[in-house]
Design a protein that fits this description.
Blueprint: H1 3-16, H2 18-33, H3 35-42, H4 45-49, H5 51-61, H6 85-97, H7 103-113, H8 119-132, H9 138-147, H10 150-155, H11 158-170, H12 174-184, H13 186-192, H14 196-204, H15 211-235, E1 241-244, H16 256-260, E2 264-268, H17 276-279, E3 285-288, E4 304-307, H18 312-315, H19 319-328, E5 332-335, H20 338-348, H21 354-366, E6 374-375, H22 394-397, H23 404-414
Parallel strand pairs: 1-2, 1-6, 2-3, 3-4, 4-5
Helix pairs in contact: 3-5, 6-7, 7-8, 8-9, 11-12, 14-15, 21-23
């Protein structure tokens, strides 16, 4: 290969992955100044008065990985007239990290993505699309086409290739996905992912043979089987079920006996049985998010555990960490289907709480839910605090980015 061709190839490589280079440079500046200092400066009088410094500090601020519950701290008006696609990408990325799936977020993604073959923006926009519209959305087809070009494929690392392979599998492009999976290699897959969906595809298409992949494929089959059984049990319950949330609304109500009288009792996340008179003690189904905030202490006391996360079986690399325990205990486990999240994200412009996700799934199965089947939900009490749990101090719960007012409206729509 001539020197000229080598230089052209190198220039293409840099161009197609330039945002990652920009991010590294900005992160170095952020480390030099210090994240805490950037946060302090963001609210200072001096920074707000000097447009240039305010712009630079705001750009540094939205690159901080930690989420903030005060979205208003970012002066988006500073970026309104900026035509830089990288700036639009940075804003969209920040909004998405804060679980904002509104038209504003998509507007920035579209501005950044327009005629832009850069890898980082295409992959990040695909995250937004897959969450809000699903993997089969027409919006994703252009991204898939761009990422499958020779130049893009050459510059994708193995993690990025895996994300592309998932998109292809979801759009019934198994031949191309299989080709990419082979490029990634079994060693990388076994070390860096445990997605039941991916392992099921690998087994089904006979790409690699490995007991770990076999177990992941079995997990995927089990998830679908348990999901169908849950749907049947709710349909056959004749209304004798209840969902018990963790809000303090049941304190001193004496509803414990009523809850325990139900055929199926569904509890959520880090629930406790310390208030039997008000919240009962019966445990049948446990719905939990898949993160480190929720312990496994309640697992053995339930016959079924339901994981609440969008596209969980498809793209979560650490899925096996959550599925392994119930699998070894030979108990039932499944995941709330993606269509539930897709519907709710469109309504909320954000991610739903665990309570709303499971309630909406039940609603999609049997129709409107009697309000007497729901306990411990703040959504029906206008004067209650959404951040409070009955079993811990408010300050220990932490900040969760949910659209509580919009959730209240949806709860009214799906109950009777």
């Amino acid at each position: 290969m001539s020197i000229k061709k080598i230089l052209i190839k190198k220039a293409q490589d840099v161009y197609f992955s330039r945002y990652s280079i920009y991010d590294k440079l900005i992160m170095r500046l952020l480390i030099f100044i210090g994240e805490d200092n950037v946060v302090k400066l963001q609210g200072s009088w001096f920074i707000r008065k000097v447009h240039f410094f305010h712009f630079i500090n705001s750009l540094l601020f939205i690159k901080i990985k930690k989420t903030h519950d005060n979205v208003g701290i970012v002066p988006f008006y500073l970026f309104n007239k900026v035509k830089s696609r990288y700036i639009h990408y940075s804003i969209a990325d920040w909004l998405l990290r804060h679980r904002n799936y509104s038209d504003i977020t998509e507007k920035h993604f579209i501005s950044a993505h327009y005629r832009n073959k850069e890898i980082t923006i295409n992959l990040r926009y695909s995250d937004f699309i897959s969450q809000k519209y699903g993997y089969k959305s027409d919006r994703l087809k252009r991204i898939i086409s761009r990422l499958c070009s020779d130049v893009s494929l050459r510059n994708l690392n193995k993690s990025q290739k895996l994300r592309l392979a998932i998109m292809l599998y979801q759009n019934d492009k198994d031949a191309k996905a299989n080709e990419i999976i082979k490029q990634i290699g079994k060693k990388f897959l076994l070390k860096y992912t445990s997605s039941p969906y991916v392992f099921n595809k690998i087994k089904k298409n006979k790409i690699f043979n490995d007991p770990y992949i076999q177990r992941g494929s079995e997990q995927y089959s089990h998830i679908l089987k348990s999901r169908n059984e849950f749907i049947k049990s709710i349909r056959n319950s004749a209304g004798s079920f209840c969902i018990v949330g963790n809000a303090p609304t049941e304190i001193n109500t004496g509803h414990g006996a009523l809850i325990d009288s139900k055929k199926t009792v569904i509890r959520i996340n880090n629930y406790t049985l310390d208030y039997p008179d008000d919240y009962g003690t019966k445990q049948d189904i446990w719905v939990r998010v898949a993160n480190k905030e929720v312990s496994n202490n309640n697992l053995k006391n339930n016959r079924l555990v339901i994981f609440a996360a969008n596209n969980f079986t498809i793209k979560r690399r650490d899925a096996n960490k959550y599925f392994l325990a119930p699998q070894l205990m030979e108990m039932e486990y499944t995941v709330i289907p993606n269509h539930v999240y897709k519907s709710l994200i469109k309504k909320l412009d954000g991610l739903p709480s665990t309570g709303l996700a499971v309630a909406y799934w039940v609603y999609s199965i049997v129709g409107k839910i009697p309000k007497e089947c729901l306990f411990g939900f703040t959504h029906f009490h206008n004067n209650k605090d959404f951040h409070t749990h009955y079993f811990v101090d408010e300050n220990e719960v932490g900040t969760h980015l949910h659209e509580w007012d919009k959730e209240r409206i949806i709860f009214e729509q799906i109950t009777k």
